[in-house]
Design brief:
- The structure is a single chain.
- By secondary structure, the chain is mainly β.
- The protein is built from no helices and six strands.
- The strands form three sheets. The protein has a two-stranded antiparallel ribbon.
- It is elongated, with a radius of gyration of 17 Å.
Length: about 55
Amino acid sequence: MLGIYVGDFSSVIYFMREGVLVQLLKELFAQTGETGFACHTKVDVAVTYPAALWR
């Protein structure tokens, strides 16, 4: 669900299901001399006290 959440985020727990994959994107930025990166991971979120957050 998309939205902005405010509140006490000390009750929010993140679980990484796999490591972070960082890939160097050389071809896309080769003409301008820049360096680009693509990052990917799978993360689950749990809230131990849902009343602490508002949307």
